[in-house]
Amino acid sequence: MECKVTWMGADGMSFVAQTGSGHIVAMDGAPEGGGHNLAPRPMEMVLLGTGGCTAYDVVLILKRGRQDVTGCSVQLQAERAGEDPKVFTRIKFHFVVTGKNLNPATVERAIKLSHEKYCSASIMLAKTAEITHTLEIVEG
Length: 140
Known about the structure:
It is a single chain. This protein has 140 residues and is of the alpha+beta class. It folds into 2 domains: 3-33, no CATH class; 42-139, GMP Synthetase, Chain A, domain 3, CATH 3.30.300.20. Helices cover 31% and strands 36% of the residues. The protein has a 3-stranded antiparallel sheet, with no helix packed on it. The longest helix has 23 residues, at 42-64. The chain is elongated and about 55 Å long. It comes from Cupriavidus taiwanensis (strain DSM 17343 / BCRC 17206 / CCUG 44338 / CIP 107171 / LMG 19424 / R1) (Ralstonia taiwanensis (strain LMG 19424)).
């Protein structure tokens, strides 16, 4: 896996990242840090990548377990250390999983497997952050 991050110029703190798979992602800093608030912050990208990683796992595990899953979203709320390095210290994941006749224990197990075995991002972040999660199952 590889990527390239390029600073977009001296008048701000905007960067463009190109992934090894050919996708382009913009990042920017807060105005008080010299940015123009035109794109997500780099640490927001870390958080959203973690959400994508774990949601992917949960859907895949449920599908492989023959659960009739039709939707999955995860909202993340994170706290960071007050001083540098401002690592994540607490992250709460709130999963909303939609499907027909979903078994709550099976969905809970999928989330646990993601956090403990499969999602590299949440496993890395758990080295500095307390990870918790809540779950809401929606019939439909």
